[in-house]
Design a protein that fits this description.
This protein is an alpha+beta fold. Helices cover 27% and strands 23% of the residues. Strands 1, 8, 9, 10, 11, 12, 13, 14, 15, 16 and 17 form an eleven-stranded mixed β-sheet that branches. It has a four-stranded antiparallel β-sheet with strand order 4-5-7-6, covered by helices on one side. Helix 12 links the parallel strand 14 and strand 15. Helix 9 runs antiparallel to helix 11 and helix 15 runs antiparallel to helix 16. The protein is globular, with a radius of gyration of 23 Å. The two termini are 41 Å apart.
């Protein structure tokens, strides 16, 4: 999958990305179950947060919401000077919300900020060794080795004003695992189509259309109000009463009546997100377990036993109601490296699970901590409750605890969970993003960024490091699939399902449903 760096003109870029609407502008109110944890654009990496940040902060390139082709945004052109040197040309005339001009210094600084120790965005700067200003309009991204997915990584690297960050003591990203705050945690100042007017955590955030935005959009929304509503019933009541225009995550049990409503519509699509369970494979003893002096999860037989005790089809049918497609791997079918063979699950079997546990020395099972979010994925808490009951049948007593996402993600990144749920979308649509973050041994430059079970396998590390720089497409594809199969064989994680995401909205709303579950406000029309 050799990346074809093409030189694009400003005129062509504008034609591809922008269109002037002749529609009356409107407010748009929407809701989902989750709240974001910060407005610092490099502090925490999750899809809901990144999507909201994209209203205010822009990246050099971004995905076209209809085709998912990479398009120019703050960069108008890029070209390969050499296999390890890519030159970007910055769009001229762009201003930050405070009126200051966007400069190459801002672009260089922002990519360097994403490389900082406290950044959670290191997977997106994978392979970048340094960033160098060339002149007022150009800068070079220097690579440690050729990177066939560089542009796709850069869709999530948003640009911050260097002067604003320095003035407000926010040069380094907020450490999401700690409690200290910087100014950028609660305040935002980008170049995007909307300004952040207010953020009341767990209440609402309000955006206003930026009258000085450099671009033009298909949509007609001048004010956005986002409300986090944890209760599914309350979210649906808000939609039915007209308080909100869109609910990003209607519960499966409500879909029938929503589809039947003459005032509403539901748009479905397969998300590029896989839901799975991770396990602590590092500690010598698990906190809170009745097994002392050793860690059962280090044994692949135990991990496979936990896997085979889970009836994924029943979860899909009864809890997800068709909004989860059972899978046997950690990436969705849209992701490079996936094959049908690699996506095949180990069979559900209570007998096989009990036999594996007995072989591993745990015929009576064991006690283990189990942590899950309760407002991030479709029916996340209900899934974990079902898994807990399934494990109990084979003698494993999981002590389930659930947390809201703003507390949950920092907790698991502090390695404080023995077994945990994670949903992993793939913004690059390339298996390296998942493999490097989830199964590469914890290291530098994004390696093991979300490997919070601290799985480590020498062959896996070799494959991931090869994939980072491999430009021969067939060779790279084989290595991606081999690495995914190795993850399956060693039970690095327990895959559950790929999410199917329905969006419920009023009939007068037009938008583009994206596979990354992100509302692109540039496309939203309120008729």
């Amino acid at each position: 999958m050799k990346l074809n760096y093409s030189l694009l003109s400003v005129a062509a870029a504008a034609a591809a990305l922008l269109f002037a609407p002749s529609l009356q502008a409107k407010p748009f109110k929407w809701a989902s179950q989750g709240e974001i944890s910060t407005w610092d654009i490099h502090s925490q990496n999750n899809a809901l947060q990144n999507g909201l940040h994209a209203n205010v902060y822009e990246s050099l390139v971004y995905y076209n919401s209809k085709t998912f082709d990479v398009e120019p945004v703050l960069a108008t052109a890029w070209k390969e000077i050499s296999p390890t040197q890519v030159r970007f040309t910055l769009r001229q005339g762009v201003k930050f919300h405070d009126g200051s001009p966007l400069t190459t210094d801002d672009a260089v600084y922002s990519i360097q900020r994403a490389m900082a120790k406290t950044s959670n965005f290191t997977p997106y700067v994978q392979g970048i060794s340094k960033v160098v200003k060339v002149d007022a309009q150009n800068f070079d991204v220097m690579l440690s080795s050729p990177n066939p997915v560089l542009l796709r990584q850069m869709t999530e690297l948003r640009i911050m004003s260097k002067a604003w960050a320095e003035k407000n003591k926010s040069v380094e990203p907020k450490d999401i695992k700690g409690t200290d705050e910087n100014f950028a945690h609660r305040n935002a100042m980008g170049t995007g189509p909307y300004t952040l007017e207010s953020w009341q955590p767990d209440v609402k955030m309000v955006f206003k259309r930026n009258p000085n935005w450099w671009g033009k959009m298909d949509g007609n929304v001048t004010e956005i109000v986002y409300t986090p509503i944890k209760s599914a019933a309350t979210r649906i009541a808000a939609l039915l009463s007209g308080e909100v225009d869109l609910v990003l995550d209607p519960s499966p049990q409500d879909l029938g009546r929503l589809r039947a409503s003459s005032d509403l519509k539901v748009i479905d699509g397969v998300e590029n997100r896989t839901i799975f369970l991770g396990m602590d494979q590092f500690r010598e003893e698990l906190p809170g377990s009745n097994i002392k002096g050793k860690n059962p999860l280090k044994d692949v037989r135990v991990r496979k036993a936990l896997y085979q005790a889970i009836d994924a089809e029943t979860i899909s049918r009864n809890i997800m109601r068709g909004l989860g497609k059972p899978t046997g791997t950690i990436v969705a079918p849209q992701v490079a490296g996936y094959t049908e063979a690699v996506g095949k699950r180990f069979p559900y079997s209570v007998d096989a699970s009990k036999k594996l546990l007995a072989e591993a020395g745990y015929p009576d099972g064991f006690e283990v901590d189990f942590a899950c979010p309760n407002n991030r994925y479709i029916n996340d808490e209900a899934i974990c409750q079902a898994v807990t009951a399934m494990w109990a049948r084979v003698g494993v007593k999981a002590k389930l605890r659930t947390l809201p996402l703003v507390n949950y993600f920092p907790m698991i990144q502090r390695y404080e969970a023995s077994i945990y749920m994670l949903g992993w979308g793939v913004p690059t649509f390339d298996g390296l993003y998942s493999l490097q973050s989830l199964v590469r041994s914890v290291g530098q430059g994004g390696d093991g960024n979300y490997n919070v079970g601290r799985y480590s396998n020498q062959r896996m590390d070799y494959l991931v490091d090869r994939i980072k720089a491999e430009t021969d497409a067939p060779v790279r594809a084989r290595m991606l699939t081999e690495a995914l199969q190795l993850s399956n064989d060693t039970v690095s994680h327990i895959p559950l399902h790929d999410q199917v995401i329905p969006w419920a909205m009023k009939k007068n709303i037009e938008l583009v449903h994206r596979a990354d579950n992100r509302v692109d406000m540039r496309t939203v029309k309120v008729n």
